[in-house]
Amino acid sequence: MESLKNHNIVDKKYTEIIFEKRPCLDKNGQAVPGLFNAWIILNNPKQFNSYTTAAVKEIILAFGEASNDRSVVAVVFTAVGDKAFCTGGNTKEYAEYYAGNPQEYSQYMRLFNDMVSAILKCEKPVVCRVNGMRIGGGQEIGMACDFSISSDMARFGQAGPKHGSAPIGGATDFLPLYTGVERAMASLTLCEPWSAQQAYFNGVITEIVPVLKVNGKFIANPMVVTDRMFDEFGKIVYGTSKTGEELKKAKDLVATAETDLSLLDTAVDRLITKLLYTFPNCTNKTISEVRKFKLEHWDKNKESSREWLALNMMTEAKAGFKAFNEGPKENREIDFLKLRTLLAAGNPWTEEMHNVISPLYNAQKQNA
């Protein structure tokens, strides 16, 4: 047999992310010689695994490498630690480099689009191992995956309209397919995160598993309601946060617990083992057909969305990202009432407007 050709665009040593191959397991839990799962691991835990421009480039290359690797059965997309899978783009980089530079952000968003497309065109099943928060762009790249298995402590949602952007890096394309239009509308505009239980109930993820241990035994997330679906008025309460004394007791319990992601890893391996016992071409064809529902919207909208996001860096995004990056810890949102009042009076977007609506400006004014 002739030597096999290398179809990777470039051969890359990864520095911003971790790329590794782990043995694929058979039904008995034994490693299958010559078969692996490719793990693509975000590695920025100090900033909740947000992706920098450099990391986006590496993610694109990593998905290409995993897709081309003949020994890879599936791809696991995850992150370091137990706090966050990904909270989206790196807001420090956004605020300090891209804010006010639409031409630069346009080029960055082309890379972002290529990252989402790299997931959607991967020739292997892609499993999002949700080890913590999946917010903003993290939710978008997570929804581009084929399966999601989550820690029951994770939270899911968007943040764009609260911080100067719109969730058009995939969320407006993908989320209505998972949940229907009205639940998607509420999530995307109000930016109220869902618990893992709510995300499962709404059809966004495949499976949830406990990750907290107390006295050596796994317990379910104690901070959310799981013992009933409806309250006495018929309102859905499953997965919502507990309140009052119940929440305080739950937080105290969480503080004493240890986090153990072993059941999460077992669930990921179990899913991929099931995929292992299928015809690979038939499975890939099935996955590509289901992905068409996402691609239909994504391919139609991604370029116009990119252009809008770039121009938005001169107005709301500039204000929102700078507020998040520079504002005091207890308040990283702009003064929405002031902004809407100024716009209603016909004021243009100027540096003065950026200043008077910023939380830093208002904090300094209060302390003066």
Describe the structure.
With 368 residues, the chain is of the alpha/beta class. It has 2 domains: 17-211 and 261-312, 2-enoyl-CoA Hydratase, Chain A, domain 1; 327-367, no CATH class. It is 48% helix and 17% strand. It contains 15 helices and 13 strands. The chain has a 6-stranded mixed beta sheet with strand order 1-2-3-5-7-10, with helices on both faces. Strands 4-6-8-9 form a 4-stranded mixed beta sheet. Strands 12-11-13 form a 3-stranded antiparallel beta sheet, with helices on one face. Strand 11 and strand 12 form a beta hairpin. Helix 3 (102-120) runs antiparallel to helix 11. The radius of gyration is 22 Å and the shape is globular. The termini are far apart. The relative contact order is 0.12. The mean pLDDT is 95.
